[in-house]
Protein: Enoyl-CoA hydratase
Amino acid sequence: MTTVQYSVEDAVATITLDRPEKHNAQDQQLLVELDARWRDAAADDAVKVILLRANGDNFSAGHDLKSEADGFAKPGLGAVESGFRWEAEHYLGFSRRWRDVPKPSIAAVKGACVAGALNVIWPCDLIVAADDTWFSDPVVRFGIGGVEYHAHTWEMGARKAKEMLFTAGSVTADEALRLGMVNRVVPVGELDERSLDLARQIARMDSWGLAQAKRAVNQTLDIMGQHSALQAAFEIHWSGHANAMVRTGRPLLSEGPLSAADAGRNGK
Structure:
């Protein structure tokens, strides 16, 4: 059964996370399907804008850590090497590829947007948040310095990024708007309609002009160091996993990994 829905209408490709019973936690199947749908949208000349959304009350509770642990286990490789390779592809690699798709993308988020969920929304060009949305990256409590696509400083500024990471606290939709992390905050009941209206508005623009505008902004960020900073932070992230493996034999220090069911309670 698929965990990601896909449709195209009015030059807008809508990609929908569809694992609501698990708060859209990202197992291997969901991540691979999500990447495939991004590739479909990128390759389809009829698509001018990509809209990413989720079914259920929460956008995503982040990584499904059981699935992640299964991905680490590669015959013939040490745990650090196999885990590093797996995350470099499925987390940092996927996020970078989505970020550089030459079409505007919009993330429509609601409810919990925790840890690995940031890997999914931050590559998008625009973010529309429902007024019940909260954002959190609580993985410091597990001995890790932050999620793999470590754009925290770019998205919210250095001091707020440190506060969220150091305290495992959350950022509300309104605060994210003030920080510039999201573009708009709308009532949760209007999220789908308002996000689709924005996508359709953008889809009326010239496709080459949109691609050029996106490329110009992204290249400016890269000249400022974003690409290199993300890679450097990923290396730091993996020093946390390696440390945990040496100390406990597990990729996280905690005996109680953050699960999809617990994310909404513990991350806020």
